[in-house]
Hints:
- The complex is a heterodimer.
- Chain A has three domains: 12-53 and 65-70, no CATH class; 85-94 and 368-474, Aspartate Aminotransferase, domain 1 (Alpha-Beta Complex); 102-362, Type I PLP-dependent aspartate aminotransferase-like (Major domain) (Aspartate Aminotransferase, domain 2).
- Chain A starts with 14 loop residues before the first helix and ends with a helix.
- In chain A, strands 2-9-8-7-5-3-4 form a seven-stranded mixed β-sheet, with helices on both faces. A three-stranded antiparallel β-sheet of chain A has the order 13-16-15, covered by helices on one side.
- In chain A, helix 8 links the parallel strand 3 and strand 4.
- Chain A has 14 helices and 16 strands.
- Chain A has helices spanning 15-19, 29-35, 66-78, 101-107, 110-113, 125-142, 154-169, 187-198, 217-220, 247-251, 337-340, 353-390, 416-425, 455-474; strands spanning 87-88, 146-147, 178-182, 203-207, 228-233, 239-240, 256-261, 279-283, 299-303, 316-320, 326-330, 403-404, 407-411, 428-429, 432-433, 444-448.
- Chain A is of the alpha/beta class.
- By secondary structure, chain B is an alpha/beta fold.
- In chain B, helix 6 links the parallel strand 2 and strand 3.
- The longest helix of chain B is centred in the last third of the chain and has 26 residues, at 352-377.
- The radius of gyration of chain B is 26 Å and the shape is globular.
Amino acid sequence: MTGTRTVKHTPRRGVVIMMVDQLPNLGREQEMLAEMGLADIEDLFSDIPSHVRMQGELPLRGPQSEEEIIADANRLLGSNVALGDRVSFLGAGLYRNYIPAAVFAMITRGEFLTAYTPYQPEVSQGMLQAMWEFQTLLSELLGLPIANLSLYDGSSASAEALTCAVRVHNRKATQKNVVYVSQLITPDKFSVMQNYCQGGGIEIRMLKHNGDGTIDLESAKEAAGSCGVYVEQPNPIGILDGGIPLLKEILGPNTALIVGVQPVSLGVVEAPGNYGADMVVGEGQPLGSPITAGGPLYGIFACSKPYLRLMPGRIVGRSIDVDGKVAYCLTLSTREQHIRRHRATSNICTNETLIALMGAMHMALLGPEGLNHLAVRNMTACILAKQKLSEIQTIALPHIGSHHFNEFVVELPGKAKDCLDYLDDNGIVGGFNLNSWYSNRTNWLLVTVTDQTKAEEIELLAAHLALWSSKAVAA
Amino acid sequence: MSNLFDHSGAIGKGYSQPAPLLPAHSIALPENLTRKKVARWPRLSEPEMVRHYTWLSKRNFGIDTGFYPLGSCTMKHNPRINEVIAQLPGIADIHPHQPEHHVQGLLSIFHEMQEMLEICAGMDQVTLQPVAGAQGEFTAVRCIQEYFRSRGETQRTKVLVPDSAHGTNPASAAMAGFEIVEIPSREDGRIDLDAIAAAVDDQTAIMMITNPNTLGLFEPEIAQAAEIVHQAGGQMYYDGANFNAILGITSPGLMGFDAVHYNLHKTFSQPHGGGGPGSGPIGVKEHLAEFLPGPIVKKRPIMAGEEAHAIDDLWYGWYQPANSIGKVQQWHGNAGAVVRSWAFYRRFGNGLRTMSQHAVLNSNYLRHAIFREAKKAGVDDMFCDGAPTTVAKHEFTLSLLPAKEKYGITAMDVAKGLLDKGYMAPTVYFPLVVPECMMIEPTETESKEVLDTFANHFVEVLQVDAETLHAAPISTPVRRVDEVYAARNLCLRHPFEEDEQ
């Protein structure tokens, strides 16, 4: 497995000089050791038996100065194709909305950046209050009374919601240890769900969809009596499904309705909490966070009251101090691993607080009208893109009659992979090849727009799609 | 007192946005899909937003604020160049679904990190996918579970954890479906070989251990423990929370472990961010590699046509292990944390050993200085070692049980007293095996002066009378917070006035 190591063995040049800016006690070892009555730093490791000692130096490169590191970082990362360098229609779960400069300015303040979990509330009021405000912002956005202060990403949030649904509903469920998930679920997210669910013996069954991409409400009746149902709005192929607000009535009070959302869409689209969803989860990234090659992101998790004491993750409560002053602290910790150990509701400890804070800052700057405007920008760009692409005779929009938020399917006259290669050669990141999710959809391309999409970029995509597809048809 | 929801200024947005591409009325959603009640978000101009979060930040304590000796968390300085690098468009503005030829530079960094972590831990294959230590534990435990299933050893349903283990160990194993068997530690805080030998059988799947253990002590009999578990057919899992103590000195591989997780936010200085993000890659021995979650980066010589996109004479590509457990995060893990940690690693290179030596040097020096100053002040009867030892590793524990018994001063009182002195308090009441425990981890990035001054302040706090200490802290933004009140009067969101009526 290891094969040959090709790590360069650079000489141990100037180790001390290179690291002196990070290790304040370099050169003072003898002084400190002498104070302890020791002669050699090795004496501090006398408890490590020789049979487990590493022999010789670590076969790694030599240390670098800050200037050399930034030069290498610029060379290596600068060689990547950043989406901002291209015309991009790639989304499929992660979306590059504009993030105001004030968010970055505030998030890099060391008091936030270099703190850890607020175990000592008296000196952590800033982050605790910011997270309590985050909980409120999400609660308002999603239409549910309770939100935690983030899980790892959208996939772990949806997976934890499924196990939470089983904890809450299994006793009364007629389909014990069973949950249902929309059959359009992306395979990567489904894989995360399977990993989280298998330990508890939870069976995941699929919820059927109609040919037009909407949930089959007849088949949804089969899910009534299970522990929970997970659907997405918009769904993974971009459709806003008018059937989803009807699901809670079909499922009844003993089956949790879990809705995965794209949070920006909720500036225009109804909040699931307002049509009976019991838990709302999602990838928080479109609010406040860059895509960063897929992480760090932040998972949104909100629920109604019956789920509170069995939910995963940390939560902040408002309290008082001994003088009766308003003060914040972590609460309901008895659900968590550091107290409950193997009986905890989740193993999560470190979460994504700082990224959630970026989300809170973006939400604070947007305000209700700003969010609506952001959603409208996404959605009208999508309408315009659908219009322009629907004018091309050689391609089809299989769900043109549906409502979309910011992405939709284009059916090509040839393989989506070939089309994406062609667009790439012309400086366009053309979208997502849905064949990687759905094995029978070789010709489906998922085209995504955001607030950053310009009308001329849509024209450019349309022109290239027309050119490629007419050639593909001819071939 | 600033409250975000007190801001209900001009109706508009905190930053200006361009007009939409089409008028808003071109959106014609059906009634049941249309939002009716707007989110009651505040309305802040940028100056108000900046002032609010600046005010909040001043009510928060980070490493930048002062000494942060929070045991088990490795709160070392976060070099700022790492933040600059993580904001470069070549990482921040990259989508995980971009093709390999768009991201050769990023993949080469992933590959370099995989290889470096393999070398440091003596493992054969690393995946960077898990995004936190607990998720790393869960992932490794799942891989081992599939390993046993592939061998037909489905009866192996038990995971052994020492009673001093981090809470995440039993929680992660239980989440994967294992039954937990707690192994009592010896009187001196070390693992008990006899207890392990008595606990293992043909149902043993894994033993999870951290070494140095949570008392900050190296387990000298670790190899023997591994042998006992292996002979019973089980696997050894290394919790990498305390890895900062041993880089270049020993390795989990040498100790006999089969799988390990790393905390990039501890050992490799990804900033802790007030609770996250983290990054929890795992490394495994060859027999477990086929079960790892992908994608993993592999390299090969470049082929014709690839020259234009290659960054050197190698091609870096994603790879899925043959019998992968699948995914634990939807994408490629916390790539931003990996890049920051790469920049940190480059600073040290093979000098990582020096880094660990200094972490241990500082820990032992602080332990020495605290006992030294306590003796001088005549308060050395108020605490003792959490477990007897001559040397500690990167952290150490003290028990304040004598202080509690003699003077009614608890570990929490001392912690709160330290807040008044301008420090973050050490970890308290963990590990559970030490009564009135205080766990102190200074890290390698604190100067001798900081350690000496802290020792003095620690001893000063011990000289404060119990009544005064019960009332501490007094100089913090708020005083002792009533956690019972918070739990009994749950207020988990802003109470809007109209809801109260």
